[in-house]
Design brief:
Strand order of the largest sheet: 8-9-12-11-10
Distance between the termini: 76 Å
Number of strands: 12
Strand content: 5-15%
Length: 450
């Protein structure tokens, strides 16, 4: 056999090795969701790839058979063709015949063939397969499926042997893992980083996916901010509430907020006022006035659970109570939407709740009711101690101080010193946060601090 014939055969073997390596990695790397999208779009070969992924024994078997055959033939033809020629070259250079010349000739021949096969028959095609696995898999899968059919009996036998061995070692063959919420968020985050997804859309998707993790207490209006009307309030008091608290609905109570009766639309009260009718509420006429029973939900559920409660009850307002029956807050559909929209609709409010001090380096003035998630984002913290027990900066400081905070109380966490600047009644009003020593403060462009 001439050198040209040997080189031609080796080139064919390299091409076959490259095809098999390309096919194996592209099919294994192809994402099932993308393949389904391509199949629905009419992409030829997508259904074949899905079949091969569901039945991996067949295509893995034919690939391994092909690779082993290629390796054997490459060794046979390559060693025979180049070993003697390299030995003759050494002889022409004056090297005496013997084991050293034979060893060097064999080593160089095998090394050259291995290097060429590794580069062009393995590494290069696998890099190409990683670049666009779904498209390449759709192109090569029909060919691989056709090559597989003549070897069906032997592939079936090897498949059964593999399954038996896996069963013996209690290894369960699993398909492609289901896509999780974290997977979706990671893909969206990658798209946002690459500029393919708008920044606000990125935050919107993030907030929607995390509704099931967000406690209802982090989205509700806290108890002290609930505006209510009592059945014993006089007309002037009700008018004052209507004038000073422009709300769409008011909780109606029977003594205090822990004894709710229902809620009434502000429009019904305004209609009475326009027609010069008395605004005094009477227990026996509340239904005639349009009062509706108010939904009660526990404070242990998530925002997503609260949304389900709204859907099931056909309501969009609910009082939140703790295990002792004490009202701790009020949740409306607007609160749910604010939790979903996040910084898009609350950007101004967040800028007011966390203000960077211009006269002091590394210092921020923080509202006691600021969301603790914003503080974590500001300082680049991944987690906080017992953070499942609080939602605000005030609760965070109470957890660290292990007492009811008073003015001038301070605590240091992760090189950041928090000082209680002011209190309002029983709650923390303002906190000063100062970096005690250089730390990595992560403030994303366009976020809460500018």
């Amino acid at each position: 056999m001439t050198l040209a014939d040997t080189v031609f055969i080796l080139l064919l073997l390299i091409a076959l090795n490259a095809f098999l390596a390309l096919s194996e990695l592209s099919i294994a790397s192809a994402k099932r969701i993308k393949l389904m999208q391509l199949r629905d779009a009419g992409q030829a070969g997508a259904d074949v790839v899905l079949f091969l992924k569901d039945n991996p024994n067949g295509f893995l078997g034919i690939v391994q058979i092909g690779l082993n055959v290629v390796a054997i033939l490459a060794g046979v033809f390559g060693e025979a063709a180049f070993n003697a020629r390299i030995a003759n070259a050494f002889a022409a250079w004056g090297m005496a015949e013997g084991w050293l010349r034979d060893a060097l000739s064999f080593t160089l021949a095998v090394g050259a063939i291995t290097g060429i096969f590794l580069l062009f028959g393995d590494l290069l095609p696998k890099r190409i397969a990683i670049h666009a696995p779904e498209r390449i898999a759709c192109a090569v899968a029909p060919i691989l499926r056709a090559l597989q059919k003549p070897f069906t009996p032997i592939l079936w036998l090897f498949g059964k042997l593999v399954d038996a061995i896996l069963t013996f070692f209690n290894i369960r063959a699993q398909g492609e893992a289901a896509v999780t919420t974290d997977d979706v968020y990671a893909m969206v985050a990658a798209g946002a980083e690459a500029g393919a997804v708008d920044r606000d859309a990125h935050h919107l998707i993030q907030n929607v996916l995390r509704l099931n993790e967000k406690a209802i207490t982090s989205a509700m209006t806290p108890r002290q901010n609930i505006v209510s009307i009592d059945v014993d309030d006089d007309e002037e008091t009700i008018k004052t509430v209507l004038a000073e608290e422009p709300k769409a609905r008011f909780v109606v109570t029977g003594g205090d907020i822990d004894h709710p009766i229902g809620y009434i639309d502000a429009a019904d009260l305004l209609a009475k006022a326009i027609h010069n009718q008395s605004l005094r509420l009477h227990r026996d006429t509340l239904k005639a006035w349009g009062m509706k029973p108010i939904l009660m939900v526990p404070d242990t559920i998530t925002v997503l659970d609260g949304l389900d409660q709204f859907r099931n009850a056909g309501e969009d307002i609910a009082l939140v109570a703790n295990e002792y029956g004490v009202i701790v807050g009020l949740l409306t559909m607007n609160d749910v939407m604010a939790a979903i929209m996040g910084r898009i609709v609350e950007e101004v409010a967040r800028e007011k709740s966390i203000v960077k001090m211009t006269d002091r380096e590394g210092a921020w003035l923080i509202d006691g009711m600021a969301d603790i998630g914003d503080v974590k984002e500001l300082f680049g913290w991944d987690s906080l101690p017992m953070e499942e027990n609080y939602q605000t900066v005030s609760g965070f400081l109470m957890s660290l101080l292990k007492k009811w905070p008073r003015k001038a109380d301070s605590v240091i966490w992760q090189d950041v010193k928090f000082v209680v600047v002011d209190t309002e009644g029983s709650r923390i009003d303002q906190v000063m946060a100062t970096i005690e020593q250089p730390v990595s403060v992560l403030v994303r462009a366009g976020s809460i601090v500018k």
